Amino acid sequence: xxxxxxxxxxxxxxxxxxxxxxxxxxxxxxxxxxxxxxxxxxxxxxxxxxxxxxxxxxxxxxxxxxxxxxxxxxxxxxxxxxxxxxxxxxxxxxxxxxxxxxxxxxxxxxxxxxxxxxxxxxxxxxxxxxxxxxxxxxxxxxxxxxxxxxxxxxxxxxxxxxxxxxxxxxxxxxxxxxxxxxxxxxxxxxxxxxxxxxxxxxxxxxxxxxxxxxxxxxxxxxxxxxxxxxxxxxxxxxxxxxxxxxxxxxxxxxxxxxxxxxxxxxxxxxxxxxxxxxxxxxxxxxxxxxxxxxxxxxxxxxxxxxxxxxxxxxxx
Length: 316
What we know:
Structural class: alpha/beta
Largest sheet: 6 strands, parallel
Number of helices: 9
Helix content: 40-55%
Shape: globular
Distance between the termini: 36 Å
Mean pLDDT: 94
Radius of gyration: 19 Å
Number of strands: 16
Order of helices and strands: EHEHEEHEHEHEEEEEHHHEEEEEH
């Protein structure tokens, strides 16, 4: 039996997201070893070399191209491989192409690594997290997706800009699907404990409904806007991957809106994002935040949307 190395990560897929994630992780100093795997071995070797040349300005570590045999002792296996989202294409449009890719990748991961955490980043992340759980047979706590960690960061950024306050002082979540049916959980949002509406009025903002609608739409459309302007998004998600890995490697017990299999009374048998405690064992528990009736209904609808897609995929 191979002993897991808590300072080793594997990244499957060296496109824009995989390589940006590798760079962010190198800069984070979380890992002493990162192995990059891609169907195009030259691409993986090129990315590893390029990043390695910056190590004299960072901290000593190994970053290299490898094969699935090299992931056997990786604590975290990050899957970014998949077809990218094209302009005008929704995340759900990607599903069939990327499920087929996962059917070849996940069995290879399981063949060599049975004890690490499987972090799914490829889109549509909720569907692929569910598929990865089914294909891997891993316990649910060790298979989860980046979910709405980035969407939540986008929400905090836009709210910070709107209110003229440090975005790190804002406590708010995007929940549900990482995609068009996502929900801004306004009813539990606050700025350092001050309810959001009250803080808005302190800063001279009174058009709450309009502002909430505009900011939620801004979050939802961020990826589409970036893809239209520069063809792909990768820096924000790379920083999100780094943040999730921090919580795992340091056993932080951080509350992050990762995508995991839900087992509640209202919503179960589907992967979507809700705040969860993340530590060295992966998802260690869900955090039940306050939602109003409208948000609860929207969350149920988001879950139903994802379930219908899962049904279509599994029945193919």
